Predict the 3D structure of the following.
Amino acid sequence: MPRKILVTSALPYANGAIHLGHLVEYIQTDIWVRFQKMQPRDRVAECWYVCADDTHGTPIMLRAEKDGVTPEALIGRVHGEHARDFAGFHVAFDNFHSTHSPETQAFCNTIYARLEKNGLIEKRTIEQYYDPVKQLFLPDRFIKGECPKCGAKDQYGDNCEACGAAYTPNELKNPYSAVSGARPELRDSDHYFFRLSDARCQGFLRRWTREPGRLQPEAANKMQEWLGGEGESRLTDWDISRDAPYFGFEIPGAPGKYFYVWLDAPIGYMGSFKNLCDRRGIDFDAWFRPDTETEMYHFIGKDILYFHALFWPAKLEHAGFRTPSGVFAHGFLTVDGAKMSKSRGTFITAESYLETGLDPEWLRYYYAAKLNATMEDIDLNLEDFVARVNSDLIGKYVNIASRCAGFIGKKFGGRLAAAGAEWQKPLREASARIAEAYEQREFGRALREIMALADAANVFVNDKKPWELAKQAGREAELHAACSQAIEAFRLLTLYLKPVLPRVAGAVEAFLGIAPLTWDDVAAALPEGHAINAYSHLMTRIDSKRVAALVEANRESLAPAQAKKEETPEKKPETGTEIGTGAGTPASADAGGGTIGIEDFMKVELKVARIVDAGHVEGAERLVRLSLDIGEEKPRQVFAGIKSAYDPARLVGRMTVMVANLAPRKMRFGLSEGMILAASDPEGKTPGIFLLAPDSGAQPGMRVK
């Protein structure tokens, strides 16, 4: 049967601008959807792409208060900005809605009522921090204080950005409200919990997360780690309520209690699709009943996998709705190998990219060339960005048409000779391989294949040399054939690139005088005598000066924000998992004043260490796991926040210095048995982290004095 596919991207939070890190996901999803929509109707009958702004929660409420507007006015303004930026990068939603909608509220109430009927909702009294000045209960991210592990100041209530330790707000030393600065009070409150620990939820999730196609292998393994083995109950019940004042939906039958934003956010997928269904006459129930033969896929960042692969399917299953066919998680974006930075000018907004005059399809192509089906992080290397786009899109792809189209118009009345040829056979046969790569989200593999075909087409053009044939009398037929065949090869390449470059593809379709390209158009060449239109430039080279201007514009516009703390912290899942847009750098503690005596210094045991092994830490944004030889019987394990600066594979064998007598610290990734030494500029004038190393000849275990 023809496929019927519903696709979503994670909902952007209505508390800030879209930046280049966000766009990785939306561009990835849009490419996959556009590929599906190019398929014939007997293969893919329907493919709908929906999204919405995520609009609820304490940060929205406080941001609106700060701006002097209502929350409704704030989310309305941000919705327009988000829609503008997505359209600017050719992200073509079939519906871009809002979670603050009657459709989403109705589904929240329905799901909650069904879970309650099934005995999966429980009311409990809990103790949590309360801001006596603002008169509201504080989420973890709005409580700050000193880390209970390392003592770093101004740390959030769920994890320390200096040492990476995870903890609860109650463990913070000298806590204070990030909203008012007041010391929070512990107060009792009744909350509502979704009983994820129930055997029915545990059993379902163990089955569902192991079913082929639901999750990527690395994601499925992470889910089993979170779930634990058979008979083991690691999942705790999920607090799905918040106290007034709160911007969100009030829980039916519970005055003053509101659904937690992460309860209603994924339900926003249903709300957006229902809104589309009502406008387009689509049968919503046929897509969401448990026995449906339709498909539903979620594209998300790996930082919210916990919600989409555990909470969301458990809610749907036990409320009597279909569950996702697949959840596709991608990695974070770094810029020039490091987390996006305001001081370096690499925290780049979508709006600033477009205002600088950079072509959005340059970025779409670059991201696609880096993306695959795994959860690996990708890096926007600005020099490589310029070089790759200029080489591939201009030097290989557009170059074919620019060198041949003019001759067709000037010498042959704009009409093609027979365009098909035996040498094009590999271009047509590649169709199935490229389609498979797109389907599997292996976009980098697809583009490598397409560029190899472009190389072959350029070899043909170079061999025929139409610019020389045009000067030679009596060789008009040869010139006509060569240029027509090159134009046909260009058409095939455009077909393959259309999911990535929709604007250019539209311009090529107009230039060639053809209907919108579909995947089946690979079969037959343009007929002899087909008329094409005058050629005009499709794309220009990237001027590196524009990229430099983009960096400078973001540095100047965002530098003032660096000097003060954010007053409304970014929404973060309250699960102890990490969230982010790329590999991070550790926050530096204040230097502190005064002096110490030699006896204080001698208490610190510094030793030369050899890095004998290094690797990534699954689920950690900033950390690298190191195995250090300091002359002891077995190596020490240390977690270091240096991922933004160092590739673990290149650290093996290096010498460094570590604090050997630091008390071991239990982290959620394992036991850390020391600390390595590195330098950084707290003012950000010299961005980066610099690992300390001894001179040549130092041996593991030597004492540093």
